[in-house]
Design a protein that fits this description.
By secondary structure, the chain is of the alpha+beta class. The protein is 44% helix and 21% strand. The protein is built from five helices and four strands, in the order H-H-H-E-E-H-H-E-E. The two termini are 27 Å apart.
Length: 144
């Protein structure tokens, strides 16, 4: 099978859409379509999405999250077997306050695969939502 050409990350500069339509499709349409497996499928969709873009550094991950409207991603702690990131933004606050059931599995999958591609080490990502301070924490755990 021929190798798929990666999408230049700077292509995201050419895309500009309002977020409400995206949120409705993601949190209503996709969950209806995917059913009980939505959480797992969204995680693997995120991993697959990361494989399609040129990701060479942590800064590329920050850029991607920002351009996707997912929020401001920040690496807050590096440990031997894990990285801890936080995700903050007005868009995160709005998502958490909305009446829709929101999750961050797509972002977690993307982040896990992005770190795996950049650092060449197998990893998975677990997200924790802090509703009090409207922050998402991602723990990228190295599995190899």
């Amino acid at each position: 099978m021929p190798k798929q050409e990666l999408i230049p990350i700077k292509l995201l500069n050419n895309l500009n859409t309002p977020g409400a339509g995206y949120d409705v499709l993601r949190y209503v349409g996709l969950h209806d379509l995917l059913g009980e497996e939505a959480s797992s499928i969204l995680y693997f969709m995120g991993k697959n999405l990361a494989r399609k873009f040129e990701l060479n550094s942590i800064e590329d991950l920050y850029y991607f999250f920002d351009k996707m409207g997912w929020g401001k991603l920040e690496l807050v702690k590096k440990k031997r077997k894990e990285f801890i990131f936080t995700l903050l933004a007005d868009s995160v606050v709005h998502r958490l306050k909305s009446p829709l059931e929101t999750e961050f599995r797509l972002e977690a999958g993307f982040l896990a695969e992005g770190i795996q591609l950049i650092d060449n080490i197998e990893c998975e990502c677990i997200e924790e939502i802090n509703y009090k301070i409207h922050q998402i924490q991602f723990r990228v755990v190295f599995t190899a």
